[in-house]
Amino acid sequence: MHWHILGAGAIGQLWAGKLIKAGHKVTLILRNREKLALYRQQPGLSITNNDGTERFLPQATLAEECRTIENLLVTTKAFATLSAFNSVHSALSHSARVLLLHNGMGPQQQLVEAYPQLQIWAGSTTDGAYLTKPFELVQAGTGETRIGMLSDNQTDLSNSDFAAQLKMIDSDLIIENEILPVLWRKLAINCAINPLTAIYNCRNGELLKFTDRRAAMSQLCKEVEQVANALNIPLFDRPLMEQAYDVAEITGTNHSSMQQDIQLNRPCEIEMITGYLCEAAGQAGVTVPANQLALEAVRGLCNEQS
Ligand code: KPL
Fold this sequence. Notes:
Blueprint: E1 2-6, H1 10-21, E2 25-30, H2 33-41, E3 45-49, E4 52-56, E5 59-62, E6 69-74, H3 81-88, E7 92-101, H4 107-114, E8 119-125, E9 128-133, E10 136-141, E11 145-149, H5 158-169, E12 174-176, H6 180-200, H7 211-230, H8 240-250, H9 257-263, H10 274-284, H11 289-305
Parallel strand pairs: 1-2, 1-6, 2-5, 3-10, 6-7, 7-8, 11-12
Antiparallel strand pairs: 3-4, 8-11, 9-10
Helix pairs in contact: 6-7, 6-8, 6-9, 6-11, 7-10, 10-11
The chain binds ketopantoate.
The site of ketopantoate (KPL) has 11 residues, from helix 6.
């Protein structure tokens, strides 16, 4: 199969390596001519993990140069998903499959509504990877990746085909019949950790060391659970606070993606994380004052950047 990858950040490059290893042809769709020129100076990307370093040679192009896309993997930041998708939409073949792998929620549902004819899959990953240079990736840890079909296209037999092909890319990958609760679980964890690490400008584990931070986290968790309950979305089989506590502890020395984005003056995903939660709460008639406050505080931090 030929895959195009939109969003050549850490997860996009990790998947480029996985796909090439599984025998697929891969084309990276790069953001602009500068990035493409940089890639072409020394084509290829390297992935380093405990087993050593491997080099891969995907092709690279720009959105406007794409002709026919059969399989599209979107690994942009959540706030860039829709515009990135629109930049290649006209190149998608009639039977194209789109797989969205990003934090937060909103863009997935918007794409399904806007393009009911497309097969849209979405997933959530806890794979740990970071770039040391533009095309040099370190795979820090192997997490869990869950993928399922979002669009209500159940009659298409090729869906199960696609699931089998995905499993061949990565045998650890989990195919879910219902992906929405999976996306909500990741959203819930991100609502509990990301805004607070941005507000306190701290590592994930430093949220657990202070009573006031733990209390704030617990309040956020309670509200997220109320919204999920009201919408009949099953979260975890134990309180969200316990689950989030463990994630913050396990990833204790990490800086969350939101804390990093704010520190590096990049746009952040607050609207697709806490913003999405607050919107869903409004629709479900649930009040979420702590999350609303966190949303406003992080929006304030984002505005300070400009
Ligand atoms: O997903 C994350 C993120 O940083 O976006 C967590 C779970 C908080 C780990 O850092």
